[in-house]
Amino acid sequence: MNQGFPRLLGDIGGTNARWAWQASAGADLQDISVQPCGASASLEESAKGYLRAHGHQNPQWAGIGIATAITGDEVRMTNNDWRFSIAEFQQTMGLQRCLVVNDFTSLALSLPALKPSDLLAIGGGAAIADQTIALLGPGTGLGVSGLIADGKGQYTALSGEGGHVTLAAADDREAALLSALRKTFAHVSAERVLSGPGLVNLYNAVCATEGVAPKALSPADVTDAAIARTDAQCVVAVEYFTRFLGSVAGNLALTLGSLGGLYIGGGIVPRLGAAFDQALFRQQFEAKGRYQALLQSMPVWLITASTPALVGASRALDVLS
């Protein structure tokens, strides 16, 4: 069955819009393109520009994962000023069907199709088949999702905004950093730390607690200085980014009971490279008191594939109404 092809597939984050074309069922994705969201005034302009640039016409269906909560027809992004009506986008683009889901819902749906070469193992034991899988990923924001197994080899993807849960401190140093952050943010969510902008927020908080005047740095500046170890406060910021990520990931794993393992997506952790201390991450991931042994057994993988959410967007068209 070749239903809903050709397909326009999108993965829209706060910074970049990724597009791909799928000509038929089971076909490889073609003409994968990454465009800055700031280069287009709207989702429609970005989509039409992609189709025009690659000579594609008349997609039948579109599947789009987008970095915000989808609560109805009107979509407003959290870390981007794009706003649109799903129905109007479908009509304007001439689509038979348009499905818009949270970007981490589409990424979650791609997980069963990932190959070992798409992943980097970060400790733990073996995953248990047909069990819940957890997913989180720091990028422009912090995405969170998971897959709930039905016991028959199929999964249901979760859609939520777990990146906006309140961030908790595990020790006095973390509490001091959160106290510094509360002078800027009334609500210090996990995303305020575990994201690209969060790296800068953490750097500024480290400077505040150490009595050092902060420099005007970008997320890339903090990352580069931590990798090169040329700025002490940037090094500490990445250390606490790693600590907080481990703690939040452990909380998610316990909440979902993710015996099928936990996956880390997003662009930040791969970009950190050797500055991301895997042992420190595991230490904080497992530091859950009476449930430490359970978490020690849970495998964690870093997703290294470049555009898995586009595969998930096509999968969403097949399994979601």
Structure description:
The protein has 321 residues and is of the alpha/beta class. It has 2 domains: 7-102, Nucleotidyltransferase, domain 5 (2-Layer Sandwich), CATH 3.30.420.40; 115-304, Hexokinase, domain 1, CATH 3.40.367. It has helices spanning 43-54, 86-93, 103-110, 172-181, 196-210, 219-228, 232-256, 268-272, 278-286, 292-297, 308-319, and strands spanning 7-12, 16-22, 30-36, 61-66, 74-76, 83-85, 97-102, 119-121, 133-138, 142-149, 155-157, 262-264, 300-303. The strands form 3 sheets. It has a 6-stranded mixed β-sheet with strand order 8-13-12-9-10-11, with helices on both faces. It has a 5-stranded mixed β-sheet with strand order 3-2-1-4-7, with helices on both faces. The protein has a two-stranded antiparallel sheet with strand order 5-6. It is globular and about 60 Å long. The two termini are 17 Å apart. The relative contact order is 0.16.
| Rg (C-alpha, Å) | 20 Å
Please describe the biggest sheet, giving its number of strands, its sense, and whether it closes into a barrel.
6 strands, mixed
Number of domains: 2
Low-confidence stretches: none
Molecular shape = globular
The number of helical runs is 11
The percent range for helix content is 25-40%
CATH fold annotation of the largest domain? Hexokinase, domain 1
CATH architecture annotation of the largest domain = 3-Layer(aba) Sandwich
Q: Mean pLDDT, nearest integer?
A: 97
CATH class of the largest domain: Alpha Beta
Work out the number of β strands. 13
Structural class: alpha/beta
The ordered string of helix (H) and strand (E) elements is: EEEHEEEHEHEEEEHHHHEHHHEH
N→C terminal distance: 17 Å
Strand content: 15-25%
Q: Going across the major beta sheet, what is the strand order?
A: 8-13-12-9-10-11
